[in-house]
Amino acid sequence: MSQHDHPNSLNDPTTEFLPKFIRERFDLGWIIAFFKHKQVPVHKHSVWYYMGGIALFLFIVQVITGILLMVHYNAGEPHASVMAIMSQVDFGWLIRSTHSWSANLMVLVVFIHMFSTFFMKSYKYPREMTWMTGFMLLAICLGFGFSGYLLPWDQLAYFATQIGIKTNEAIPVVGPFIADMMRGGKELGTQTIERFFALHVWVLPLMFIGILGLHLLFIQLQGIHAPQFFENLPAEKKKFMKFFPDFAIKDVYVWLLVMNFLGLLAVMFPWELGKEADPLAPAPIGIKPEWYFLAMFQVLKLFPPHVGPIEGELVGILLFSVVGVLWVAIPFIDSPNAPAWRSRAVYYFGIALLAGIIVFTMWGHYSD
Fold this sequence. Notes:
With 368 residues, the chain is mainly alpha-helical.
């Protein structure tokens, strides 16, 4: 069989930017045509379309810096190995600081992306699965934060993780089992580190990549959502931007800005390492979880030890569970055939949730 029997894109003008070696062997014109055919609505809220790309960029940074850290990290001597990374490995402190700052920024950007999607009503039919996979990605991001926080094995990480795991024990029936599975026993120790390390560098990344692939596939197949006010415009007033190359190039520019901002944070505010965890030492005064768990932490503090016959922590967990289920189900609650009052109720629910997260996070940060 000659080479002319194989489809190629050698004579396709849309693939001229590719090397001849690739064009001779693969017909990639249909892929380029697909991306060129895609369009991005241009309107006053278009800036929010970049949030997903920023989150993707920060995840890539997480993967690269995480691999570099994993080369030198030792789960058997967690604190000592992190100290060695920061003091003995060339630019180790910068890599760790970049990893930590990008992790926090990724959680923040995913939250912003989720709420911008909500207020533009991008969750509506037929994008229910895009919304649900996005929520799963947020949950995994929080899992990254929780599992990675313990790995340096310093005092704050030890006691904050202990509080987080003990909270799970309030869940009836399965709570104690889940807590023991996470700890590898009744107390935090070497087995906990090994389990959190495996969760952080293998289980969660594989889950994240798989769900992210589905999330991006849904977006590519269904296109980028345009808000209702844009849809109501006359056809001659609607403006669009080609996804490739116009929007893609602007996305890269935004990535460069984020990379510079991330580098500035990593250099000017390097991530610190506390004293090695001592299980026999008293817990530090005013210990708190990371900022993205502060709202839940502060809400749980408001509950008394018992609400009737039920433990206060369990009531708080049930409240979070109900809110989470409602949030995931929003595309089905605010369906195309939903009455106007239900759409308004969903809108006010989102405002209340966003305000609650901000208020309780700030309250938790400044409270004793």
